[in-house]
Amino acid sequence: MTRSRIWHPFTQHGSAPAEISVARAEGARLITDTGRTIIDAISSWWVITHGHGHPRIVRAIREQAQKLEQVIFAGFTHGPAERLAQNLLARAPSSLKHAFFSDSGSTAVEVAVKMAVGAWHNRGKPRHRIIAMEHAYHGDMFGAMSVGHRGVFNAAWDPMLFEVSFIPFPESGAGQRTLDALESLLRRDADRFAAAIFEPLVLGAGGMKMYPPAVLERIAQICRHYGVWLILDEVMTGFGRTGSLFACEQAKVAPDLMCLSKGLTGGFLPMGVTLASAEIYDAFYSDDRAQTFFHSSSYTGNAIACAAAVANLEIWDSEPVMAGITSIARQHATALEKLARRRQVAGVRQTGTIAAVELKAGDSGYLAQLGPKLNAFYLEHDVLLRPLGNVIYVLPPYCTSAAELMRVYGVIDESLALAG
Ligand SMILES: *Cc1c(COP(=O)(O)O)cnc(C)c1O
Predict the structure, then answer these.
(1) I need a surface site. Which of 129, 133, 152, 287 has the fewest CB within 10 A?
(2) What CATH number did the domain enclosing 62 receive?
């Protein structure tokens, strides 16, 4: 137990062990102040893509810092931001034509929701209701919390969150219950709904819950049919995690708004971006200043972060990133097949580089006692894993070697004994 000066995120300082101080990191490895090496099997909370310390991004940051670190982004622009917008929009679904920068995944979501509602306002047809999915996670700010699953994480603020219409997570293959719920909401009164927001294919913080591209495709069709904008939150799924650059590619879905953040700078610097369709942009495009999109944060379009993000995308072009993703996916599949046969395991699932093992646990809530025990066990064995309740997941950087991943699975295998 520590009463530390620093108040750490998602940390109960009344029971958490002392923090581990990291001196440096390289590839898939963290090296602590005391010289221990820990395998980063969750990409440092899902942000690291190509590996820690990738030299190309290091160089881009150094060179940009020497030229221009930051400039006000209203009335001004710069090369790295222009290049980033162009490179991102060239790779994103063709429905997306404009890029709005912010600082994190939560801010990218807040911007998307504000844009959707603001666009209806500017059109003179105000709509204020949002549709979201049970077990969703979209961030920890008030708007992002509002469109996310309600539970112990946000109970204190629940009365302050705006009302949202939740549809069930598609548990079964075809997701018929989900599609029916969406359709029945929209058939009744579509013109109350400004937008629907979903994490495509994988609900991350909700427990790495996965659903097939065909369901996402149907969801998108229903939203389109009823004229409700579709926001895809690719903050976690973006930049290769699900096996394609963006998860929505697998469903051939063209969203109206898309949120990106975690892998955007390869994990180097905090940055978010909301990509928007021409229709959304045009709803604010006017000679009336009252129709401006009134939103900013001080560091919007930070030049160093933009340069890091441009370098991140260049790595996708110049290095065999997809080969790394494919080999991780293959190794996941083999390891999961074995784990699925263990008696403590209720089920396994995988989408691209994300693998999850669900344990049979009496109490499957996040606060179940098993979580902290597993965390401690993994760290004792020099592996960083952070189960979500009774779900152990592996979400490694794409440079992770076969030997490193094998070690991660070896430790997971041993840890099952803790689950009875
Ligand atoms: C992490 C996450 C967010 C929030 O991003 P932050 O950068 O932590 O604010 C939003 N949506 C999804 C799907 C996420 O996984």
Answers:
(1) 287
(2) 3.40.640.10
